[in-house]
Amino acid sequence: MNDQEYMLGQVCNVLAIDSPTGYTHNAADYLMKEYEALGFAPQRTRKGGVLVKVSEGDGSQPQDGLLLEAHLDTLGGMVAEVKADGRLRLTALGGMNPNNAEAENVRVYTRDGRTYTGTFQLKNASIHVNGGYNDTKRDWDSMEVVLDEMAFSKQEVEALGIQTGDVVCFDPRTTVTDSGYIKSRFLDDKLSVGILLGYARWLKQSGARTRRPVYQHVTVFEEVGHGGSASVPDGVGEVLSVDMGCVGDGLACKEHQVSICAKDSGGPYHYQVVSGLIDAAKRAGVDYAVDVYPHYGSDAEATLRAGWDVKHGLIGAGVYASHGYERSHVKGMMATFELLKSYIQAE
């Protein structure tokens, strides 16, 4: 299996495991097993993330370790109320936008281990009945989960074991087209998780050595702002977040490229790191774009805000329709992979 096939397979595998922020243990279990199968010794952080050292380095730069960060947590919902008619009112986990989730199939996970399906719909969703259907603002109060159960009251739904605080996961609807496009919810950031696994596998199979120690931290609270705020190993001097690259009006990046972020809403990334990433992309002939993201925050910034004295950067495969039904391309995935190899300069 070549690198592209392996990474694409891993992306699809992790996308198939529900993991909204706060409910990531199943996906993290999967990652632990995959790193172990590759011959590494991953650790589970207290917050639930996965931390693994993928290269010891050659001993020349022991205090200049590099930490690669990607996040496993996604957007989702939580039951905020079981309503009198048996429908469920939700509250968002992360930046889940109800406008992008109308009529999506969902899974409801109860605290006692049961799973139920349903659909996220506008209240009174029948156009033949609701004359105000087109004019109704879609928000968490005007929309609800309709369960696929014969339960039409609060008491009947609660008898199923469903209660306030249960996690609601939206169907990712993952598909890969013959032309190489990857379409799914939650490519942010499971696409990058697959890329980090691919880079770890390449290091192991190639026997390549890096000059500095290299770690990977797959975080589980990025979507609520504190994923990268802890678990930085001793000796790390730089943090590189591998997240989605923004695609949209006013930006240069397309889905088939890797994006190098110079600045986002949290401020500029470290000047030397950004410059080094650009040089590495040129050196390797990688198809890249440099952009400024208007509405964005990363794990690397969470690391800095927690007080860690490190340089920081951000790259990622181009992803269109972020926080909605997202789209990228295998060429963007491979460009990100090749940029990592060039920047870290394994020999």
Walk me through what this model shows:
Helix content is 25%, strand content 29%. Strand 1 and strand 2 (50-55) form a beta hairpin. The model has no long low-confidence stretch (mean pLDDT 97). Strands 1, 2, 3, 12, 13, 14, 15, 16, 17 and 18 form a ten-stranded mixed beta sheet that branches. Strands 5-4-9-6-7-8 form a six-stranded antiparallel beta sheet. It contains seven helices and 19 strands. The protein has helices at residues 3-15, 25-37, 154-159, 187-206, 271-284, 299-305, 330-344; strands spanning 43-44, 50-55, 65-71, 76-82, 88-93, 104-109, 115-122, 143-147, 167-170, 175-176, 181-184, 214-219, 236-242, 245-246, 258-264, 267-268, 288-292, 311-319, 326-329.
